[in-house]
């Protein structure tokens, strides 16, 4: 969008088209993801043990977190670039970098926290750091 704004022509049709396509893709993706989770939820509820249900819900929670980590920065960055005329250029650059860096960095963390050994080691490390500050 930064390059498009440099043109001397009216970009309102480009803005409308871009926002429409962006939200259409987001709505279609969200619909299919939601439908998939409804089907997964139905299958999970048919599992015989509570432990299996909890483990499956834990996996689904990690997936939903990963999806949100990916989609939220895309939506915010897109909206700010299209409608944030009073936003400083540095903020646009920061949001673009945030969108490119944040999801790939957090995705492994979301899935790694599910592992008991990693979770235990992380808690030990955080408690050690907190103890060193006191």
Automatic annotation (TrEMBL):
A Gene Ontology cellular-component term: plasma membrane
Keyword Membrane: yes
Topology in the lipid bilayer: Multi-pass membrane protein
A family per Pfam: 7tm_4
Segments forming a coiled coil: none
A GO biological process held by the record: G protein-coupled receptor signaling pathway
Claim: Transmembrane helix is one of the keywords in the record: yes
Protein location: Membrane
Chain ranges passing through the membrane: 16-40, 60-80, 92-113
SUPFAM superfamilies xref list: Family A G protein-coupled receptor-like
Record-level Gene Ontology MF annotations: olfactory receptor activity
Domain G-protein coupled receptors family 1 profile: 1-111
Alphabetical UniProt keywords: Membrane, Olfaction, Receptor, Sensory transduction, Transducer, Transmembrane, Transmembrane helix
Xref: PANTHER family: OLFACTORY RECEPTOR 52M1, OLFACTORY RECEPTOR 56B1-RELATED
Name of protein: Olfactory receptor 52M1-like
Taxonomic source organism: Podarcis lilfordi
